[in-house]
User: What shape does this take?
Amino acid sequence: MSSAGRRPLLLVVGVLLLATACGSTVQDASTLATAPGLESTAPPGPPTDAPSASPGAAGGRTATDPAGRVPTSVGASAGVGQTDTASGQAAAAAPNLPGVTDTTISIGIIAADPSTSQTMEDAGLGAASAGNEPANWQAMADEVNANGGVAGRQLELIFHLVNLTDSPQTQGQAACARFTQDNTVAAVLSGYYYASAHVCLSNEGIPALLGTNYGVDRTVATQSSTVVAWATPLLDRLAAVLPDAFRSEGKLRAGTTAGIFVTDAPAFMRSASQLSADLTDRGLTVVTQTVRDSDTGDYSGASGDASAAVLQFRSAGVTEILFLTHNAFEPMLLMQAANSQGYTPTYLLSTQQYPAALVGLVPPDQLTGALAVGWAPAIDLNIDYDTSVQAQQCLTTLRDHGRTFSGGTQTLAGLLACDGVDLLERAAERPGALANGDALLRAALDGGTGFVSAVTFTTSFPDGRRDGVAAYRPMAYASGCGCFTYNGPTTPM
Assistant: This one.
């Protein structure tokens, strides 16, 4: 495949929400106010201080902040986000957290520019389209505001919209500037992790509640200490889970020659070294091959790395290959190169390699016998990825605000918005949570909030751990349907 042909494919996997996103477009206030889907979805209604209506009622008014915040709806409505009156009043009494007033909470949102998804659809890549992601966040803010707000305050969203053209470094810096220099926010919500943004936000003491932090291990996490990622395990924690998970499926037995295909970036390499040492201690022979980081934009070089890795794996007698990579792009390159060389090892994957998307990117024979560790149905599965109680409640709420979804990628974008707003709301309602950034972070990590994710099976933050995924399900590729399916029970991670 030519490098010109690989570029659109990288854009496909890049927009799959749990991958490292790129782009650098700082939207001004007028652009944000008129961007498609960002307008409030609640009808006109009572003023801000009107009492909440009974379930089924709806109402609100639109208020525009002169600092350029997106209009949000306030009023009364049924739905998610029931508030605890006592704790809400207590929190409203004396807020000290920047971005919090007696009546409002300003929240930064990093979201994909809807035009990116339109570009995907125009190119015939609609399955990778995230849809109108900012509208999902706005719908959830409208819902919460209509039901009384968060800790007795109305959410005001400030958007930084990203595209897939500029470097993550540049985009992250722009996002941080928007939330620290151009505006004051109490926290940042997103489905994405940008190292440059979140190290910067951490230096400013601004909490960030993220769906994902792929590409982060414990070492990197200390540099972005205000980040909580509820739907992704840190790389080194994932690396610690893989050997036992696949051994229970009959793989990675002593005497096996196993390969590790890893992104050539520090956090990935540290985790691969940990994984290699673990497998070696279990009596396996381990061969590690690297692929250059797709964030560099050297897609042709990455393809060459994959071809070289296949030669090395094959000559070393590797029969099982594990992956520590950003997304589906790197394993796709390896499997295509393996197919051209007639090499068919058993692949051992995880949610991080986007099993559902990978199915459509590689020759089916390459996936025969493939196994995976999965923790996010909307990424793992092609069907039945939205059947949990939490997912159904989320999608019902979003539909009530005019949001509809086609496919797993768009559904995932909606579920991430539900989770992010719900986690923020539950944390902010804890007594004293709005005193400062540390207090809000501690509240978000408090298991007593009752937070249940719509994205992943279970979450927990023991001992202040900042990555929340607490369980996975084993998966296997089924040739009959040409898809991955769960083939075992939920297992603690």
Q: What stands out?
A: Residues 1-92 have pLDDT under 50 and may be disordered.
